[in-house]
Amino acid sequence: MKSEPAEPARIVVLISGSGSNMQAIAESCIKKEMDGEIVAVISNRPAVAGLDRAEKLGIATDIVDHTEFASREEFDVNLIRAIDEHSPDIIILAGFMRILTPDFVRRYKGKLVNIHPSLLPKYKGLNTHKRALEAGDKKHGVTVHFVSEDLDGGPNIIQAVVPVLDDDNAQTLQVRVQAQEHIIFPIAVKWFIEGRLSMIKGDAYFDNQALPETGLQLSPESIS
Ligand code: GRF
């Protein structure tokens, strides 16, 4: 008897804004670079560009507007409900600008992946490009990491390093960092779907090897 081909991995993407990382992952799925499908894009803000992008790609969208809930807990309960409707294998935070409750993070432990525009553990939180410039850093970049209860503190999966140029400002730096985001995020999602990534006792593993604190670190030359 022939076995049925496995269904593509079910990906839910949470966004708050432009959705360019979501689009990079969607395009990688469409090109069959990975065996996955974005089954829903959920935004905590109505009328953001990322929702339009998703609709153009034919992806189901949903809005769970955080301003409609009295507490963080209540918002997260409703977000969980919206996510679970789609039975995801992986939940991706792609520019999702909300602090999640410990209950939320525990529920999806090992299946929740975020992108953060700095070489974590440097510059957790906001305004990362400005902070890297003000510190006179010669290297900046972006990290994809598993989410833990510690904000921007879960174990790193992959980083892209971006050189800081003498005439950079926060915007020029951000543009070059984003170009790398669109490369490394689909790579990390593909690895996850292939079962090559896991989080065990707070550490990230790739092909059963514990990753270094940086995660796999790629320079632009090695991933272009
Ligand atoms: C990205 O720069 C990401 O690193 C940060 O938020 C931004 C989201 O961009 N967390 P987009 O919505 O994917 O275009």
Tell me what the structure shows.
With 224 residues, this protein is an alpha/beta fold. The protein folds into 2 domains: 7-108, Formyl transferase, N-terminal domain (Rossmann fold, 3-Layer(aba) Sandwich), CATH 3.40.50; 115-224, 3-Layer(aba) Sandwich (Rossmann fold). It is 33% helix and 25% strand. The chain contains 7 helices and 11 strands. The strands form 2 sheets. The chain has an 8-stranded mixed β-sheet, with helices on both faces. Strands 8-9-10 form a 3-stranded antiparallel β-sheet. Strand 9 (203-206) and strand 10 form a beta hairpin. The model has no long low-confidence stretch (mean pLDDT 95). It binds 5-O-phosphono-beta-D-ribofuranosylamine. 5-O-phosphono-beta-D-ribofuranosylamine (GRF) binds at residues 15, 17-21, 50, 94-95, 115-117, 142, 178, 181. The site of 5-O-phosphono-beta-D-ribofuranosylamine has 15 residues, from helix 1, strand 5 and helix 6.
Gist?
With 224 residues, this protein is α/β, with parallel strands linked by helices. It contains 7 helices and 11 strands.
Molecules bound to protein:
5-O-phosphono-beta-D-ribofuranosylamine
CATH superfamily of the largest domain: Formyl transferase, N-terminal domain
Helical amount: 25-40%
- The CATH first-level class of the largest domain comes to Alpha Beta
Count of alpha and pi helical runs:
7
CATH architecture name of the largest domain: 3-Layer(aba) Sandwich
Helix/strand-derived class? alpha/beta
- Largest sheet composition: 8 strands, mixed
**N to C succession of SSEs:** EHEHEHEHEHEEHEEEEH
